[in-house]
Amino acid sequence: MKRNAFQLLIAMLLAAGCSGGDSAPDTSSASSGLGIPSGTYAIDPTHAYVTFSYLHQDLSYPLLRATGVDGELALDVDSMENSRADIAIRADSIRTNTSYFDAELASPKFFNAGKYPYITFTTDHYEIISDSAGKLQGHVTIRGITKPLTLDVRINGAMEHPMMGKPVIGISASGHVNRSDFDLDRFIPAVADRVDILIEAEFLAGSSETSGAAAALAIDATAGSD
Questions:
Q1: What is the pLDDT of residues 45-59, one digit of tens each?
Q2: 119: buried, middle or exposed (CB in 10 Å: 19+, 13-18, 0-12)?
Q3: Domains of the chain with bracketed CATH
Q4: Whole-prediction pTM value?
């Protein structure tokens, strides 16, 4: 029920944006119903959340958060299956409850951020399930090892940003990896092999030097794999 109310709010905002006002946004998006144009959208770093969770000794599910996230969404509103996201996360930016564990994760014992400074994701294909849901199929690279990763994606909303004055789209995504696939098998099975990933992100129309560099880095990481 809460989701239906949110969709109604988005529809009202989009309708308000299309009636009157100084500048109507480009509308190459009529077929998709998103109400925003195709193009490059950069991650809004103030609204990008990537968290990781795993079972710890059958007792709890710690939450870790990556604070250095950048990249871009190439949105094709007329052929959504051609849309892609290319993301890079600084391996030394993953935060826990303790500075000691933060340092441990960045060390050669875990992510070895000195040698492998980025965790990356790049897209192969977007599978449409509905107007607001799909599966983003791609590859994740961790510690120089590349493996397939599928993210379940929900498009929460799209509009002209009321403060930024440019198109914006917000998504939620989730998936999981196995640590052992990336030589991160310390403490298994006391600490679970499976790590669940949750992403909440907003993308603003346009590109920047940092977002473009992050996207290119993600693509290069996959291109360099077998």
A1: 999 999 999 999 999
A2: buried
A3: 26-223 (2.40.128.110)
A4: 0.83
